[in-house]
Description:
This protein is an alpha+beta fold. It has helices at residues 12-30, 81-92, 94-100, 128-142, 146-158, 166-175, 177-188, 196-207, 213-224, 239-252, 258-264, 301-314, 324-332, and strands at residues 54-59, 64-68, 74-75, 163-164, 209-211, 269-271, 276-281, 285-290. The strands form two sheets. It has a five-stranded antiparallel beta sheet with strand order 2-1-8-7-6. The chain has a three-stranded antiparallel beta sheet with strand order 3-5-4. A hairpin with a 4-residue loop joins strand 1 (54-59) and strand 2. Helix 2 runs antiparallel to helix 10 (239-252). 6-diazenyl-5-OXO-L-norleucine binds at residues 77-78, 110-111, 128, 172, 179, 207, 271-273, 298-299.
Amino acid sequence: xxxxxxxxxxxxxxxxxxxxxxxxxxxxxxxxxxxxxxxxxxxxxxxxxxxxxxxxxxxxxxxxxxxxxxxxxxxxxxxxxxxxxxxxxxxxxxxxxxxxxxxxxxxxxxxxxxxxxxxxxxxxxxxxxxxxxxxxxxxxxxxxxxxxxxxxxxxxxxxxxxxxxxxxxxxxxxxxxxxxxxxxxxxxxxxxxxxxxxxxxxxxxxxxxxxxxxxxxxxxxxxxxxxxxxxxxxxxxxxxxxxxxxxxxxxxxxxxxxxxxxxxxxxxxxxxxxxxxxxxxxxxxxxxxxxxxxxxxxxxxxxxxxxxxxxxxxxxxxxxxxxxxxxxxxxxxxxx
Length: 336
Ligand code: DON
């Protein structure tokens, strides 16, 4: 199904139903893709229903198109990382964040126990070591209110009050020895304060925040709308922070698949082991998928394929020479 919509040959609502039809088609096509595995290293995540599958697009003006399981709650996991990074940039300052975390792709797994040669900083804020460091910076700023501040920020981005999945949080707190090792490595190099366990505890909580595929698309739409939630109008992130968040998502958001993702999909994105995947089409839309079976990199298997298909059908890649998708989405979403 090739979609070519020009501003003069389709009304917005025709184009919207074309988009809905394309999303239904992709949902049908990829629901039979049965590769990958549900995460089990956090025991509670092993209870995820592997059949859940949702695709949602939220425009920068807040209109949404959803197909499949878009209202099923799941934990945000690593999709939290660009948002806490944005909070740290905003509240601790660019310079301070930069001193603690670099912005280079690591080429290694998200949970690798390593720091950058020479500087001993985490490679970037999307891998666990960088994200725990960012949370520690937030902890220095907000003290005992850190998790509440994170929850309030994520809720403002999603446009509704979010909550935490207590059992996933406790499950990771009980079994997250690898992250505990990372936190203590960071402590060794002075990147987190003496109370590394406190920052780690907040990190586990931020990962256990419950969102839906629809929430995730709206959080992406908040970034596409330059940091302002499209429905409430609330300013969640300043414009320069959004630029930095999207940049780091583009280069590091898919871990050691980031290069292939940039090649195949070409939009800033972030994945989580709960099965969520969020991408941002600059100034136009947030797009999210939810499917809990993961590939070896920890990225949703179906999600990756749906995004590759959407990018190629709609021409979403930032370097797409025809820029078909951006103009298509512009027509559909009324931003032209
Ligand atoms: O720290 C962890 O291992 C998890 N709470 C989050 C990891 C994650 O989501 C990796 N992303 N795909």
